[in-house]
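Quick one, probably user error.
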């Protein structure tokens, strides 16, 4: 039986159906559970051949109406979601650097039924990790300032004495971690076709590589988008990448906006390895000289 199915069955029996009236909102717990699984996959970091580390501290951002419905039960729901993440990690042979925590937060910019997931890796004994509860980023809060590794939406900072993370997966290793999401079926993404003398551009989404062959690339939930993203938090025409020197990304008036390298924005300059979050989906922008 799949991890998500077991999670649904456990919820059904909780508190004699207490959750039944709560989950009439558009956001369903199984949707959040699926988003947490994707967050683990998209942020898996290979430390060595036998250890792949995934985030253990999660924040689920909800619209005001959904948050008001769910917040009275946030403790119990958070525990169930943490248990689901633990089961999924065991199934995928992922490991954690600290206890698993899932928190709910209210986001004023989200409409009912939409949600957003952020995550980070916290080492249980790290002197710089700070508290495991949610809080704003910035000095004095125990959370890394925006733009620094270790914060929500960023890869874990290397532990003291550990070698730096490689810029590419080790030989024979599967893709994973910052800039290298796991490939479907455990296989490495196919190499981009050679194009000597010019810069090649592509994006990686859930292990799949999408070549950018034109000057622009529109991503969204619509079948008319250049790259279709099946995610309820993604608008029909969500954002557009324009290749060049430098390449840029532009929000196209989406409902949930875009996050580029950890920053909410409507327009940003892209670099090789830039991490773009739309809805609950992580996109890695890549470019290389041909």
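Nope, works fine. Designed sequence:
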């Amino acid at each position: 039986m799949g991890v998500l199915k077991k999670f649904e069955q456990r919820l059904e029996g909780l508190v004699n159906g207490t959750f039944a009236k709560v989950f009439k909102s558009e956001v369903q717990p199984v949707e959040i559970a699926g988003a947490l699984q994707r967050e683990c996959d998209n942020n898996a970091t290979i430390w060595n051949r036998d250890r792949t580390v995934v985030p253990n501290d999660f924040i689920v951002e909800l619209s005001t109406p959904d948050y008001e419905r769910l917040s009275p039960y946030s403790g119990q729901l958070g525990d169930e979601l943490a248990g689901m993440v633990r089961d999924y990690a065991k199934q995928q042979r992922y490991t954690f650097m600290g206890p698993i925590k899932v928190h709910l937060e209210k986001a004023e910019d989200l409409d009912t039924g939409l949600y957003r997931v952020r995550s980070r890796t916290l080492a249980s004994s790290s002197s710089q990790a700070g508290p495991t509860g949610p809080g704003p980023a910035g000095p004095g809060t125990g959370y890394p300032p925006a733009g620094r590794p270790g914060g929500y939406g960023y890869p874990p900072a290397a532990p003291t004495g550990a070698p730096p993370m490689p810029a590419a997966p080790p030989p024979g290793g599967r893709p994973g971690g910052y800039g290298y999401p796991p490939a479907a079926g455990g296989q490495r993404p196919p190499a981009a076709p050679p194009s000597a003398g010019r810069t090649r551009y592509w994006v990686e989404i859930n292990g799949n590589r999408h070549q950018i062959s034109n000057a622009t690339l529109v991503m969204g939930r619509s079948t008319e988008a250049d790259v279709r993203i099946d995610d309820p938090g993604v608008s029909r025409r969500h954002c557009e990448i324009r290749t060049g020197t430098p390449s840029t990304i532009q929000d196209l008036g989406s409902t949930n906006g875009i996050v580029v390298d950890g920053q909410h924005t409507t327009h940003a300059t892209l670099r090789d390895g830039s991490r773009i979050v739309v809805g609950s989906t992580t996109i890695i922008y890549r470019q290389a000289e041909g």
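The chain has a mean pLDDT of 74.
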